[in-house]
Amino acid sequence: MAKLIALYKHPENKEEFDEHYFNVHSPLTAKIPGLREMKVTKFTGNPMGGETPYYLMCEMIYDDAASLKAGLSSDEGKASGKDLMGFAGKLVTLMIGEDSE
Fold it and tell me: In 3D, which of 68, 66, 83 has the Cα closest to residue 23?
């Protein structure tokens, strides 16, 4: 399994961010060919009781690195990337990883 992981810092306006993320961006991303699963986590705090540096994480899971690369290169992948940079370009950190067993 290969994953594209997006970590989002806290937005200035969380309601506006959530509205766009869940109603516009997520549906665009869900259309990417080869995407097997998309897991979204909203952070609520850390074990010490404080706020985390991140607001939200999305794990996009593909069968393998080739499927991930093909998905990102597709028209749907490009549309998702363009939207991402438009509403959260300054907030997001993207990483690619693989499950280790």
Answer: 83
CA 77 to chain centre: 12
Instruction: Render the burial of 11-35: b for 16+ CB within 10 Å, e for the rest.
Output: beeeeebeebbeeebeebbeebebb
Helix (H) or strand (E) holding 101: none
Mean per-residue pLDDT over the chain, rounded: 96
Residue 4: which of 98, 74, 101, 91 has the closest Cα?
98
Terminal Cα-to-Cα distance of the chain (whole angstroms):
11
Q: What's the rounded Cα separation, in Å, for the pair 93 and 24?
A: 19
Per residue in 49-89, pLDDT tens? 888 999 999 999 999 999 999 999 999 999 999 999 999 99
